[in-house]
Design a protein that fits this description.
single chain, alpha+beta, about 30% strand, globular, spermidine biosynthesis
Length: about 60
């Protein structure tokens, strides 16, 4: 099994790619994604995101 890896990532300013990573991580673990919410902060100051799973959740905050 391969896990999504953000280690060493730089300039995580745009939340759009995170949605695909949430879905990839859920598939890798057999989890069910119910919903994904992302919020990009003004002036490219980062983003926050959460994937609501039937089993738990996944989140990222930059």
């Amino acid at each position: 099994m391969s896990w999504p890896d953000f280690h060493g990532a730089r300039n995580l300013l745009d939340g759009a790619p995170a949605e695909a990573m949430f879905h990839e991580a859920a598939r890798a673990t057999g989890a069910t994604v119910l919903d994904v919410k992302l919020h990009d902060f003004a002036q490219r100051a980062g983003f926050t995101g959460v994937a609501l799973l039937a089993e738990s959740h996944i989140s990222i905050h930059t």
